[in-house]
Inverse folding.
């Protein structure tokens, strides 16, 4: 029978320990984990990017549910262990689960410190430790405007930057005179304060919190000097305290943390402690690098490979606030036996300081330019005597021995055992070996295989330089990406070659352009299908099996496998007859949800696939056609009421919108295209955030393009002013055709325009009348083959198989 | 094992799929570019997406909801994703496609 291993806490330290253990002794233990947090193991370091919106929680999961299943590990999510019974060798959770162990690992981490001031329990006072805290802050950011963060250390500043990114008005209160005083000297602290303030975050140093004010919920923070700062959210980031109470109640030896010795064993040899809750030789830790080392030592013990001792090592601190480069290492206090070398470049905001003792580096602070951090770290770790390079030391590695000033020179000169990724303890040699042995070429591959740059990501630049050295010109991070793994060609090359070689089917493209797979993948096939539809409108037979389901079924798939149906309402106009027809269809088919969309029309959701043709048949009778709400094609043309009704309307914006939509519907485009026409600059149709927009003015029509209001938000650019409706239509059609011919699949107009340049587009579709006409004519030609309502086609029987399930033949025909 | 006929090969588009409804959910039957036939539950191991509606390439299908790639041969998620969908015994006799009768009568294992 296997030994029973029980782990309390499922944070970063035990996660890493299990990876080592499963490699060294996969069969040895029957493993059970209890985690107070109701979730799997994730990268706590990356909570700040989740808070600021740069990442999703799914992207920071380290071990997904599948990993536990695969490794036969039982994970009790949301179970907090309330007691350890050392005599019975068992633990009990707050849900009453009792589990016996042969070996127990305590990895309870730390808990945020709550300042003992009045009001600290008011609603709206939060800490910053786990995903629940992040969610609470995100929620608060939605409805509240002013936030106060107490504590100007790493956590506090990351929280402040995140809340600012969520558009809160943020003030940081810090007790000491300068920020991050434990990691930075006053000069660097000052520069950091300036950099943070430049982002619009207010900072108050020497600020001692006296009370949190409010009636039921937070209203402000009162300082010792009597100042009151209004706030509806307060985040306490004033430090952490190792979570030791469980171990203490069990009678284990406790100091600041749970005291651990060789093999990470506590005072009870059946119990280990690792992570932030553990203390070795008087040190407790708050950064992952040493915790990962504890994890390795503990795994060796558990695998029966002897007891090594965890050795203290300084870990550099970096701040993960985009755009602020900061590096701090070791001890930088002044002292009679110490000397320092300082370099300042005030205009560039650079400050560097190296502290020496007996000609060896004991501490380093870098601000603004941290490229040499790894080099200084290496010199310090090896206790290198720097007497010979003393005069040039502070200029960094590139200046030593008269080497040329090449940005990669610094990395080239690093020895193989120099640490590149602090979080995961990956040195230069392991990266270069992995690149050579496994033939890695992308940063994602290197992350997957070595874990370098896979945690906080602050070493990504360094890792890329190592890759550049190892791969030479073969590595170019800004190189154009291939369409997908099936080819080395980029979208533009594929488009060019389709034309140049006259390729007219998907198999022809794959054969001639040497596709690496037999029939492509879900990424390249839809792209190729679009390019061929666009380039050979009369000759190419659309390959439906290469279209995403929505475009194949002409409806939008929903999360439960049902579909939604959005008919066109030209320019957002409708009538009693149309509304009645929709109402009848909804009743007849029991459609559960009817919604007015953001695109001025009506969405019917929750229709089963088999019902689609019948639904369309009824809608068709009332004159409706597909709204292409699913298509990489023309979606809606929103309009306002315009001169027909509005007292400010300068032109018939509704009429023009309908005209454009009727002219352009059915066309396939690289990505969806949305348009709008507003009757005056008050812009009620929101034309200035669309792919193409028109603002009607007294003197004519101002044509706008390249706006965005989805994943990105960007106001449009003005293409130009034209006098007549006819001319407006011609310009818009030419613009769309130019985009159709040049855009990469899934690239919206604003991204394409950025790549091509607005000036070039203006020249071709506004100023050069011949070019404009030629684009226009090509669009009109392709519309001949595109403007047939896909719904009525399917009502009359096209693609019948798509909508009907197969029926089992009578069992009498069953075969053995 | 008893098999029952559910389709003729021509019923299923090349690089496509069709479904059979059972009392226990839907079974998806796939036909690849090289006319191989596979059957499995029509439920993505990720969030239950209807795999029959995905794009078929090589001997894999890409789920229409969040793009997991599932091997038609093993039912296993490919690449970094983890999970598997139950495959269902299927065979071809000439143009006739037959699946295990048991799969219509009880949930797949
Ligand atoms: C129904 C609707 C929401 C609503 O209830 O109002 C909607 C629903 C969906 N949107 Fe949208 N979007 C809707 C208006 C918008 C708008 C507003 C607008 O059109 O004025 C935007 C911002 C403008 C824009 O397009 O950028 C919008 C930006 C997106 C995006 C982000 C696109 C981007 O490049 O930034 C996606 C994702 C995508 O396309 O990849 C998206 C994707 C989707 C999808 C198709 C998600 C999906 O892939 O399944 C949703 C389909 C639901 C369905 O079955 O109907 N939807 N979506 C709106 C339909 C408008 C219509 O009548 O056709
Ligand atoms: C926002 C933020 C940013 C950070 N940035 C960095 C950084 O840039 N670089 C860096 O090196 N470090 C950083 N850190 C610190 C790093 O995340 C921690 O050092 C590390 O996660 C600690 O790992 P651990 O396993 O000891 O504990 P944790 O990851 O805290 O895990 C402890 C787990 O144990 C659970 N638990 C506690 N008590 C019990 C119980 N009785 N029963 C069951 N379960 C229990 C808790 O719920 C928790 O999930 C950051 C931390 C935060 C919060
Ligand atoms: S914003 Fe659009 S894509 Fe997102 S949930 Fe709403 S409808 Fe779906
Ligand atoms: S349900 Fe299939 S990928 Fe999400």
């Amino acid at each position: 029978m296997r030994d029973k291993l029980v782990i309390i806490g499922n944070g970063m330290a035990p996660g890493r320990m299990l990876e080592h253990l499963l490699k060294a002794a996969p069969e040895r233990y029957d493993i059970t984990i209890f985690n107070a947090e109701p979730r799997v193991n994730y990268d706590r370091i990356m909570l700040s990017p989740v808070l600021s919106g740069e990442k999703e929680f799914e992207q920071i999961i380290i071990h997904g549910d599948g990993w536990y299943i695969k490794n036969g590990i039982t994970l009790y999510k949301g179970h907090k262990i309330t007691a350890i019974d050392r005599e019975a060798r068992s633990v009990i959770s707050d849900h009453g689960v009792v589990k016996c162990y042969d070996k127990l690992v305590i990895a309870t981490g730390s808990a945020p410190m709550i300042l003992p001031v009045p009001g600290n329990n008011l609603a709206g006072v939060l800490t910053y430790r786990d995903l629940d805290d992040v969610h609470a802050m995100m929620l608060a950011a939605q409805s509240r405007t002013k936030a106060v963060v107490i504590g100007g250390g790493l956590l506090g500043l990351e929280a402040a930057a995140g809340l600012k990114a969520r558009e809160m008005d943020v003030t940081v209160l810090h007790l000491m005179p300068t920020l991050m005083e434990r990691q930075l000297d006053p000069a660097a602290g000052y520069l950091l304060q300036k950099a943070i303030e430049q982002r619009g975050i207010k900072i108050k140093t020497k600020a001692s919190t006296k009370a949190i004010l409010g009636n039921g919920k937070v209203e402000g923070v009162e300082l010792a000097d009597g100042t009151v700062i209004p706030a509806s959210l307060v985040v306490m980031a004033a430090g952490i305290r190792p979570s030791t109470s469980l171990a203490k109640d069990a009678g284990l030896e406790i100091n600041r943390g749970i005291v651990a010795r060789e093999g990470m064993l506590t005072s009870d040899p059946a119990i280990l402690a690792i992570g932030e809750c553990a203390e070795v030789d008087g040190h407790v830790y708050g950064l992952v690098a040493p915790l990962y080392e504890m994890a390795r030592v503990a795994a060796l013990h558990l695998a029966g490979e002897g007891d090594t001792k965890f050795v203290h090592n300084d870990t550099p601190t970096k701040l993960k606030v985009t755009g602020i480069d900061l590096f701090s290492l070791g001890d930088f206090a002044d002292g009679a036996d110490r000397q320092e070398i300082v370099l300042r470049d005030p205009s560039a905001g650079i400050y560097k300081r190296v502290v020496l003792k007996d000609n060896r580096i004991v501490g380093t602070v870098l601000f603004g330019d941290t490229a040499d951090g790894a080099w200084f770290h290496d010199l310090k770790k090896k206790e290198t005597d720097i007497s010979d390079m003393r005069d040039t030391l502070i200029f960094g590695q590139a200046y030593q021995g008269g080497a040329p000033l090449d940005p990669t020179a610094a990395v080239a000169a690093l020895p193989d055992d120099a640490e590149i990724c602090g979080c995961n303890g990956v040195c230069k040699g392991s990266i270069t070996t992995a690149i050579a042995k496994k033939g890695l070429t992308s940063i994602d591959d290197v992350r997957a295989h070595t874990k370098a740059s896979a945690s906080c990501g602050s070493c990504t630049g360094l890792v890329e330089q190592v890759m550049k050295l190892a791969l030479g010109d073969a590595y170019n991070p800004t190189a154009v990406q291939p369409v997908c793994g099936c080819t080395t060609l980029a979208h533009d090359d594929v488009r060019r070659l389709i034309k140049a070689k006259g390729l007219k089917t998907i198999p022809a493209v794959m054969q001639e352009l040497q596709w690496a797979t037999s029939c492509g993948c879900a990424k390249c096939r839809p792209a190729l299908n679009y390019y061929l539809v666009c380039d050979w409108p009369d000759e190419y037979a659309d390959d439906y099996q290469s279209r995403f389901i929505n475009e194949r079924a002409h409806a939008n798939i929903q999360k439960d496998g049902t579909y939604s149906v959005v008919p066109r309402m030209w320019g957002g106009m409708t009538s009693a007859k149309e509304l009645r027809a929709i109402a009848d269809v909804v009743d007849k088919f029991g459609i559960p949800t009817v919604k007015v969309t953001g695109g001025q029309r009506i969405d019917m959701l929750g229709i089963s696939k088999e019902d689609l043709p019948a639904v369309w048949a009824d809608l068709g009778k009332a004159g409706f056609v597909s709204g292409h709400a699913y298509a990489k094609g023309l979606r809606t043309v929103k309009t306002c009421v315009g001169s027909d009704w509005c007292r400010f309307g300068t032109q018939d914006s509704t009429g023009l919108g309908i005209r454009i939509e009727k002219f352009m519907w059915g066309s396939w485009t690289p990505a969806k295209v949305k348009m709008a026409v507003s009757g005056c600059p008050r812009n009620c149709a929101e034309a200035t955030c669309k792919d193409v927009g028109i603002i009607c003015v007294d003197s004519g029509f101002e044509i706008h393009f390249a706006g965005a209001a989805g994943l990105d938000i960007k106001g449009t650019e003005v293409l130009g002013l034209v006098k007549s409706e006819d001319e407006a239509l011609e310009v818009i059609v030419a613009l769309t055709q130019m985009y159709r011919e040049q855009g990469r699949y899934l690239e919206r107009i604003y991204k394409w325009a950025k790549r091509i340049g607005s000036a070039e587009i203006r020249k071709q579709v506004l100023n050069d009348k011949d070019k404009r006409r030629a684009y226009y004519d090509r669009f009109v030609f392709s519309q001949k083959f595109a403007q047939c309502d896909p719904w009525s086609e399917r009502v009359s029987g096209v693609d019948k198989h798509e909508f009907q399930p197969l029926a089992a033949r009578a069992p009498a025909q069953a075969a053995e | 094992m008893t098999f029952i006929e559910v389709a003729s090969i021509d019923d299923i588009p090349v690089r496509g799929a069709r479904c059979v409804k059972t009392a226990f959910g839907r079974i998806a039957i796939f036909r690849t570019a090289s006319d191989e036939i596979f059957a499995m539950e029509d439920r993505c191991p990720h969030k239950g997406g209807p795999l029959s509606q995905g794009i078929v390439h090589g001997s894999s299908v890409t789920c229409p909801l969040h793009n997991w790639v599932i091997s038609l041969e093993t039912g296993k998620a490919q690449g970094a994703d983890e999970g598997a969908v139950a495959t269902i015994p299927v065979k071809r006799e000439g143009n006739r496609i037959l699946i295990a009768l048991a799969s219509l009568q009880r949930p797949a294992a």
Chain B touches chain A at residues 2-7, 11-16, 18-21, 26, 29, 32-34, 47-50, 53-58, 62, 64-65, 67, 69, 80-83, 93, 98, 101, 104 (CB under 8 Å). Helices of chain B lie at 102-105. The domain at 4-103 of chain B is CATH 2.102.10.10 (Rieske Iron-sulfur Protein). Residues A 8-14, 34-37, 44-45, 47-48, 80-81, 107-109, 128-129, 155, 158, 243, 246, 275-276, 286-289, 291, 320, 423, 456 surround flavin-adenine dinucleotide (ligand 2) (CB under 6 Å).
